[in-house]
């Protein structure tokens, strides 16, 4: 009899435990408390202090470019990353937040029928944003697919992978050989109106905000709280990477020789230059920098400074000379607005962020 009662009790406990697990949520909203910082919130909610940058980028409209600008009572969106955080207001059911198995892109041979479709252009080897080997082609490819599916153009759409990134702006987009390109950063066109991208392209609304961070040697740290702290420094960013954030917003760091920029072949070369004292910091987007640190086991040697060097949105672009330029941008904008409103966008972002942070 006792054994039956014990079994029944365990069954009831198990039932309630199962119900509690089923009811548990992931992600949601957090209200900033006295004494909070993004690092403390990240450590408490995600058990990983490094995720402060994701909290920042996901709430950039509320916080602004300085991560220490949070205020008591501010409501911040906490994305669901690897099942955390749990129990917050506005979260999603943990079971539905679990990432599905990764699905790399399978590119099928094309045919002449695609000429009648809206043809999107991207390239490989730009993980986590675009990569054939990544889940659904990477974060931005996944977003763009959802955007176009939601917009549902009558003629349909197709995504083309051209790995020669240098050909994307010219001739492929400039000659309307393909219609819409992604993922591209937008310069500060207010202060850099003569920039090639500003002169020649229309930009969609931002599909994701990327933080450009400084990676510094722990034995030679320096403080970066505002632009004055960078003057006279030597930064490293590989050859071929964008540099307009170093001159935009009135900085003119390169144009007026206010800093020195080293541009070796690879990101790893930049980390080596900083380690040797040949540069003060690697200036690169957070995901690329963290990936290289992970790959080469540099976490014990380098720190990631909490103040972003810049915050850059990632966009789709259409050449202004395209005969349907405005209509295409309106179509993308409509689709992006819809997937943001119906929750599809946030699900995609959280799915990819979980995969990205699991690698770090």
TrEMBL record:
Domain named LysM: residues: 28-78
SUPFAM superfamilies: Periplasmic binding protein-like II
Signal peptide annotation: 1-22
Keywords noted in UniProt: Signal
Pfam family, one: LysM
Name of the molecule in the record: LysM domain-containing protein
Lineage of origin: Bacteria, Pseudomonadati, Pseudomonadota, Alphaproteobacteria, Rhodobacterales
